[in-house]
Specification:
137 residues; mainly alpha; elongated
Length: 137
């Protein structure tokens, strides 16, 4: 008895296209986020500062949650890319909003203050979940 994988693999090109787009959007988000934050997340993470990893990781999750929704809800790659860019902008705006609440946020992250980092992560993920929910049709 043989198993016919052809039907299962018929959508492999679509999977690869969406996955490649997701990687491009995720890397784009990481580049933009590192660029807009005044503190140097990657250097702080390399220096073993958990606050930087917490806030950075939360922002990334806050982006990929709506990106996953965009992938599952989109009608095509361009539609997905547009909503992925919306998710990117929303997360950037979330960071700026948190800076309004905590104007000294970059210094607090650099000092490894985890309470500030947890707040950034929680708000980023929360906004990401709301963003994802709003992307359903």
């Amino acid at each position: 008895m043989s198993i016919d994988l052809a039907p299962s693999l018929a959508t492999l090109p679509n999977f690869l296209a969406y996955f490649a787009l997701a990687i491009v959007l995720a890397v784009s988000f990481l580049v933009v986020y590192v660029w807009i934050t005044p503190h140097r997340e990657l250097a702080l993470i390399r220096a073993d500062k958990p606050a930087a990893a917490i806030s950075f990781g939360g922002a990334f999750l806050g982006f990929v949650i709506p990106l996953a929704s965009a992938i599952s809800q989109s009608v095509g790659l361009i539609d997905c890319a547009v909503w992925g860019l919306v998710a990117l902008v929303v997360q950037a705006l979330t960071f700026f909003a948190v800076r309004l609440l905590l104007p000294d946020l970059p210094a607090r992250i650099e000092r490894d203050e985890r309470a500030a980092a947890i707040l950034v992560a929680a708000l980023s993920i929360g906004v990401g979940v709301l963003n994802a929910a709003c992307m359903t049709y």
